[in-house]
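Notebook entry, structure prediction.
Reason for the run: the old model in the group folder had no record of what sequence produced it. Starting over properly, with the input documented here first.
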Amino acid sequence: MAANQPNNDKAVSVEQTAKNGVSSEGGFSRLLRRRSPNERHHHHARESSVDSLNRIFDTRTESQAPHPAVSQRSMTSDDKHYANNSYGVTELRDGFFDAVFLPPEELDFQDLMKQAELTLPYAFRKKNPLSIRKFLPRQCHEIKGVVRRVTTTRAGIRLLKSFLAFFIAYILCLIPPVQTRLGGRYCYITVISTILNHPGRTLGAQVDGTILTILGTATGLGWGAFGLWVSTATATARIGYGGVLAVFLFLYIFIIACLRSYYIRTYQAVICAGIAISYTCLAEVSATEVSWSKLLAYGLPWLTGQAISLVICCTVVPDAGARPLAVALHQAFAVMLDGLGLTRLESLRTRRRLTQTFVSMSQAYRDLVIDFSITLFDPKDVQTLRNLIQGVIRALLSLNSETKIFDEPENTSGINESRDRPMPDEFVVDIDEKPRTSESDERRKLIQFVSSNLAEPTEKLLWSMKSALQSCDAVLMEMCGHRQYLGPPKDVSNDVPGSLVKLRRRIIEFGNCQDDVLASDTLPPTYAESPEVVKLFAYCRPVHQAATAVEALLVKVNEMQQRSPKYPKFHLPGYPFWKAIHRSNAQVRHDRGGVTAGSYFKSFSDIAVIIQKIKSRDFQPLPRKGDESTDKDKDHDTSYATMTADELEDDWSVKKNHVRHEIWGFLHRLQGFETRFGLKTAAITSLLSIPAWLPQNHFWWDGYEVWWGVVMAWLIMSPRTGGNIQDLFTRALCAVLGSLWAGLSFAAGDGNRVVIGVFAVIFMLPMLYRYTQSTHPRSGLVGCISFTVVSLAEVTAEGKPSPATVAATHGVTMVVGVVASIIVNWILWPFVARHDLRKAVATMMFYCSIVYRSIVSRYVYYEAGNEPTKEDIRASEILEGRLREGFVRLRQLLGLTRHEIRLRAPFDPLPYSALIDACERFFEYIVTARQASLFYHPHFIRDNTEFAADLLGHRRDAIATILTNLYVLSGALRADRKVPKYLPSAAATRKQLLDRMRVLEAELAASGRLTANEKTEGKKWAQIYSYSYNESLTGCVEQLEELEKFTKAIVGEQG
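New structure, fully documented this time:
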């Protein structure tokens, strides 16, 4: 056993007793982390790893002075007792922790899956979409639902606007003189223009789409025209004109496909540019001459179609952005009313609706300011309103609707039973489970006393909050002008000032009642024997915080009502440009398809940016007080951080490093999915285009307009979703139906254009609804384009070739484009929902570990004078909002796995659903601990250096165990590796910490160091916040065990 040396944190020799041997008790003493009482005041500064190695291998030269010997001091009785029981060794661990390993619990897989079934999202309550037996009944049910929505809601008006634009353009193309003016055989471009930028959207979105589609078409025609000129400029170019056009097409498609992936806002421009370049470089091309008139034959019909859509949008029931905002606000207030717990709905479902509403409010504000709007609302007021509503939702999420405070007195005996989850009896004052004694009657009377006094004011406060939220809803709906359509009913008062006065009165009464109950002599000085009483107070405190949040919302709504203008005002787009290019309005998000996958990737990208800021902070531990070596070196070295990688690098200029990093970042980004999507899109379009540049194929290529197969492949390709079996059959079927119906329309009336128009009405009404409003927009787009192109091609052909030939060739062409694009998306860098789900859940677990580490260090174990600021709280709330959105996206991604066919075995969503739920509960406990830590200030942690040092090892073990488990579980899940059978027990280290805190609390109370004010405060709220704080951290431990169970259920167990 080595003697004790200065700055040696590994082992301290208390007495020369090592010769007696070391038994297993020495290891147990290290496990319990017992130190000598006289060693409590000895702090050792951590040295660098290099110095530690030098101490081991002793690399000193002869010129260096050896370490001076330390004189031995005489041993006290305490030292002798400690040495006899610990064999003279104290483990200070130098930054490491002692892990406690317990035998793993034996689990029943069937019971585990039954537990997981309760966590499945609502989408899994529906029948399997791949079930053949349920297909027809499901379709009949959906048809009835569509008819009901179209005839009774705003969906009918949107469908009417979209269909009017289409039908006007279609009728114009059926009139021979107008058809000739609109480009002859390519007159259907007018109809395609009205379909792609249909008027079933707000005014701002329509104008934005008109500008983008015209710009995209202009750039596509311009680049294609340049390619045509280059391919025929010289004799050499004419020989290889096909290669020249192929290069121009490949480069352009690659660039715009990358733009489509990088910047979502450019979607409408890019889609139209791809159609324009395909038409220019593939339709009627020749090595001898260029038909420049075809550019006008495409551009003029496109402008005509955009003009028709814009006029319809501005004249037929125009919407300038007020209604989508009104719908979002009304739905938010409805969910908040359910969140008050008055209806006692299913707690899990209500909490998920609250989280979804939290995300939807951000989306509603973004949709309002991303385009111009004409409303009575100032966008700045809407932003403040969004923040206040999210504050109310945040408070409601902290509210436990399954409280016992409203139960009848005879039912309070079962207070230990929980409806939501088994509530732990662990409490900072008394964590050990104790049997019932004769004092149970007294405890029951105490619970009855608290609940009977708090039940009435709490219920009145909740009803006042309900009335206040209903008044806010009524006022906002009246300001939007949609109360008669959306609600609330007329019997709901819009008296916001009156509701505000009543709410404030109830808040004051509620606070006075709480103070009276806490000051009553009926309550004992401490609640060690009655943790149920603390649970009652712990429920009432979030109610008070929620009431305060509702009060702030009322004040803002009252202000908006008083300043409401008489007439709507015009508001320019107010969303930052560099954020706006990564977002799109609601209708574009729907029309482009893949909303779930796109939202998932964007949400996790935003979370990663914030997490990276937390991870990139350099750790700089503070110097320990009383350390002579630290005080000595403080004058010449003010950096207390351990050696970092930056110190080993050459001292390059910051500017040079920045430039190198920017270059590296750009090259690294080229390896991302955007470049891969650009490559596979350019590859499939170029391969399908090869026959267009072979002279022997011009007859059938141009005669049957086969270039529409290339266009269809371009439209179906998606950067984030690769399609599935259901999409393959549905989209191919829509292409076939469109072509077949077009052929029947021509044959039914022998080319009669009136009959063709009637057939168009019958087919296009449901197909336009599918494209503009259903959850399957791409198949609807395929059907619309297929029918439009084939039917108008038959009209211009006038029976030569036959309608059957035109329908068959055009239909096969479009089916080939659809099938080719989906197959390429399957083969080349596919999107597989179940794989991304596994990686996303692993990433979220890792993010939770980062958030846990950050919150514990910033809000719980901070140095005196370094309390969290308002900016810290605001940043934490922003991050928590992002993470809440992340959990919403995870469940949406889980729903996508139902549409995928897995060849090896069916995909089991149960463990993934339970794992997401456990991770979300872990996160909620972290949030609750952060909120409670703002009010809970244990005096022995920050005000008492001796007790803080005593707790340091226990606190470090508790935190390090949780972080270690999260890192191991997230890494195993992401890499799809088995989890080790034995993991450090977070419950054991947590119990040791709470046991030690209980001992120190008792010592502090007996020492007489607490002031009278501190003792009074301890009797009032310290124990309540202590319960919330410690119960939350204990809940984190419980959910960590759930994370371990379900992670092992997914990837297996090793060992």
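Summary: The two ends are 34 Å apart (CA to CA).
The old model has been moved to the deprecated folder.
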